[in-house]
Amino acid sequence: SDTAASKKGQDVSRCSLTCKVEKLDPDTVPDMDVIRMRYSLTHAYADQVMDSPKFAFYRLLPETIYYVGGFGVMSRWVNVDEYRAAAPDILAKEASEIVSKLNREHRDDLARTANHILMVENLENCRVSSVDRLGFDMRVTRRQGTRRNKLETDEFRVGFRIPVQSTEDAKSEVLKVFQEAWEKANDIQWDDEEPGSTIPVLKIAADSLE
User: Fold this and answer.
1) What pTM did the predictor assign?
2) 20 to 30 Å CA-CA from 182: which of 25, 56, 110, 150?
3) What is d(CA 67, CA 6) in angstroms, rounded to the nearest whole number?
4) Could you tell me the mean pLDDT of each successive run of 10 residues in the chain, 210 residues long?
């Protein structure tokens, strides 16, 4: 429905950029060959238009950047120089698929993680909102006391112990979190520490919803 789509749009993280538009001169731009190749791989009709005198490439030069983590979550201005120097996260292309699979196939694991790793009581709902090479974000909604119509939603960052280098590494690290949550839920004790005690966890946002 339109309402569901709207809520989903509000939940996801996003950036707003104010940019200067620069027309590229094919005789002076050093990476023009790379730009042409990428365009031709994306558009089947590229060869028919790129050599036309009416065709030109343009580049967006960011001047201001504003990041919104999602509805009720952190937002801030992003340093433009840091943005230019940044590299895409290694999971950028697969992140959406990973998030969808976790929310679809691992509801019980996510609930155990919320209860026993994030220590959330009166759990109403939880889901993964994003994942990257350093960890994943969980949005957790809980009841305030016995009032079911009074809900509190928090966003947590669940970190991986080491940065991952591939999609398979990410899946492995997530499953380790789920395994430790299961062990803690079933009172399984380790010799030197409690399951889940060394998983990096940070509460990154809070929001109260009626």
Assistant:
1) 0.72
2) 150
3) 18
4) 47 84 93 92 88 92 88 79 90 92 96 96 92 94 75 91 94 96 93 90 71
